Structures are given as structure tokens and as C-alpha cells.
What does this fold into?
Amino acid sequence: MATYSELMAQAQNLMAQAEQARKNEISSVIADIKAKMKQFGITAADLGASTGGGKKAGKSKSGAPAKYRGPNGELWAGGPGRKPEWVRTVIASGKSLDSYLI
It folds into this structure.
């Protein structure tokens, strides 16, 4: 049976591979989404995207200025309380949140 350290190393390797696959696929996915939006006349507002009238950019849900930006653009102020899932994943993988500072 594999040790904890071996399993963590495998998990980190898989997370790195998954992130690389995401980066490799993202431009084609975005192009496909834009093409379908154009085809059906869908706007960002139709999808619930902010048009600038809501919260200020750089603010988290709490209203405190965001200190961290997640791998998919999620914002977190770093305050007390439950940490977002992406933060827990980064910490569990042994990485530092310093690379996510804004």
C-alpha cells in the first residue's frame, strides 16, 4: 500500500497535469462559447455577468477588499471563517497562498 507521502505526491502531480490540460483547452473552449453566443445572440448580461453596476472589482462577497485571486478568478479577502474550496485545495496540495496574492 502506498504511503501518505507517495499519495500526496501523486495527487500533486495529477493536479499539475489537470491544470496544464485546462490551460491547453481553455482557448478553444472560449472560442466555442463565443461562437455559440454569437450564433444565438446571447450577451454576457444574459448569463448573469456583472455589467459594472454591482460590486466593485476587487471586492469579495464579504465586501472587504480581496487579497487573493484563485486559479479561476475567485476572490477571497483572507478573513476569518470558512475558507473557500479553492483555498483548501491549494493548502492541501502543500502550496503557499502567496502566489495567489493580488
About this structure: The chain has a mean pLDDT of 85. Helices lie at 4-40, 85-92. The longest helix spans residues 4-40. The chain has two helices and two strands.
